[in-house]
Sequence to fold (850 residues):
Amino acid sequence: MNAEADKAADGARPRLEMRAISKSFGGVAALRDVDFVLKAGEVHGLVGENGAGKSTLMKIIAGVHAQYQGQMLIDGKPVHFRSARDALDAGIGMVHQELSIVPDLTVAENVYLGKQLTKGGIVDWRGMVKGAREQLASLGIVVDPRIRIGSLAIGLQQLIELARVLFSGARIVILDEPTSALSPPEVERLFEVVRKVRASGRSIVFISHFLDDILAISDTVTVFRNGARVVTEAASKVDKVWLIDRMIGSGHEGLEESYTDDIALDSKPDAPVILSATNLGAGRAFAGVSLDVRAGEVLGVYGFMGCGQLELARTLFGKNRPATGSLALEGKKLRLRNTAQARRAGIAFVPESRRSMLFYSEPVYKNVSISVLDRIARLWLKPAEERRIANGHVASLSIRPPRVNVLLQNLSGGNQQKVALAKWLTWPPKVLVLAEPTRGMDVGAKEDVVKIVRKLRDQGMGIVVVSTEPETVLSLADRIVVMKKGRIVREFAGEKISKDRLLEAA
Amino acid sequence: MTVPLEGTDSASGRSQALAFVRNQMRNIAPFATLIVLVAFFALASPAFLSMNNVANIMVQISVSGIIAVGLTFVILCAEIDLSIAAVANAAGIVVAYFTLQESYVNIANVPLPGWAAIILALAASAALGLINAFGLTIIGIPSFIMTLAMMQIAAGICALLVRGQIAYAVPDLVSTLGSGSFHGIPWIVIVLCIFLAAGHIVLTYTRFGRYVFMVGGNREAAEYSGVNVKLILAAVMVIGAVCSGVAGMLGVAYFGSAQQNEFDGYLLDAIAAVVVGGTSLFGGRGGIGNTIIGLLILGVLNNGLDHINIDSFLKILIRGIILLLALIINVYVQNLRESERATA
Fold:
């Protein structure tokens, strides 16, 4: 009803219209009754926290999720996509954060990927090079189409992927976090291309965590929160603070409540520095990172997905080798050639994915003992001792079921996460690096993790918590550094902080 | 949570039993295969189960068995070594090269005391294994390709040392262990049993053995647990090569001659024994117990096919088919595990 009134008011039929879309995953509602209107020739910014529902909506539009309630119309005609192919045929293209170009092929081959030009059954290389050059030039992209695409800068690769999506006939293009890996000039160039696309009457959905970028390029902004559309407004009428307020919301319940209020950071500037990084850099991932990890303090490293914080965590554990800069542990220079050296030096790491930390078809006790095996046994294994140690952790962390011979795959996710933590607790390390320690956990399990981390901190351990979720960092950290595109841009210490200020800094 | 319905318990009991069978499929299938083969050949040929023939089978599997012990370590780490037979050949030729040959043997050999020749042969195989390890862990060449190159290199060493000739003499110790017997038991079988036992003990009861299983089970997790994955991988490549070296020396004594290409059939036999026994090609599952069953299956098959009247050319085909079946089971069991994990 409302939508039709809007239509009459606008006088033009929207390019895409979503009516009362709902979608749930296994009983959990991801989208609730969402209406969404995309006009022809508009850039529509989409903002919201992780899990707010913006990606789910876009996946429905792009045909990835075929099961949902509600109606979808393109140019006023109802459609229902069963696959990404369907959506592409209807003129909807998506450029994901992870590019889907083929790095070893040339620019021209990538532009014509899947639909090579042929002349009498033979690939028409000349025609493809010419066509690609012209098409790219029409978007203001000047590049030799014969060059291998993998040798180009990320920003250029992304533009070429966008170009490919456009050439495949897309009238609606969804850009998912397009600026997260780009330098400021690259961002500006992307915006120029986006403006050209808009001028041609095509519509663009622009999803990003970078609110400045959203405001700079969008005509309209829609805010999502907890699976619902909160508000849609002309971008010229709003600013960053207004957006953050709407993203976080005011009336929310439980754990999250505390984060809208100011939290006093309990930094300990006098505590001895255990691990310090000086001017650390690694390729494109991050550069010029200097930080100190202090005893008895939790250092939070916050940043959006892809800002280099996970790579930084791996570098601290010796999984990746830094290209520049150095590490020092308790004042002594530390050169980590592999993870075994990091472990022996007293650094522990729990990666963001449990899968890359645990042995699913092995019993719990072997999972717990693997990282301390050299302290339990020299040559001969001592399974009884391993079980005794594991039993201690199972009891103190209340892991369920409380038996150490069960295969790990039979434990629930939260209990698996506790096992991943327990691996390092038998002989406490000096520094514990946790990546996304509470991702995908329910509230109870999150609180357990918070309690465990606090206890370890109070024992004098230096802890680094790396996360893309503001709640995780806010609930755990005593000091917070914010990373943005591979660099530390802000440090919060000994002051009050709230979620909106954290988001604003990133 | 919902209240469990009546009957759920017995259903879950049954599914648990089913899960157990599925879990043990890797061990049950090879064992059943062995029983069926033994029963079949025992019925088809009365001489098959005679004491004499059983002893024959044991001797026949000895050389490939010693190679298979090392290869079990490699495959448990989800790597492969295609150079094992060539390295065995090289070790056998090196030991002969450093032993005084009869005057009619036309090889420019360098006679050394027996112990020195043995040490040199072992060192040569260890060195070849180290080169494999270097290529795999430092340079990052996949083991399949690295050891394919090593196969050629080891064959080249063999060719250069013997230059198309045949050497016969090996040090006394090697010739005793390869072709002598101890109170009626062939020494080579005793050596096989020692290697199998040692391999089993190392894999099951030592820290290194645990690391081998963990690296094979989830290499990334092992690395994030602070295990020196590259060191473990390097060690298994060297173990594989040294086992091959021992097998090569004893094999030369067993055959009575050292020449080019005499171990070619053992590459397939050793890989087949490990895989047919149920050790996962994807790493982390299996062990020496599985390898023993695999060796027996291959030994019984090779020996049994000689006892029944069958076209000798057909035998090759039958062996191939049995190997294929084992591979199918191996991959099938792996898929079962993956799908179970996905649903868990």
About this structure: Residues 8 and 14 of chain B are 10 Å apart (CA to CA). The interface with chain A takes residues 205-211, 213-214, 217-218, 220-231, 284-285, 337, 340-341, 344 of chain B (CB under 8 Å). The first strand of chain B starts at residue 181 and ends at 182. Residues 1-11 of chain B have pLDDT under 50 and may be disordered.
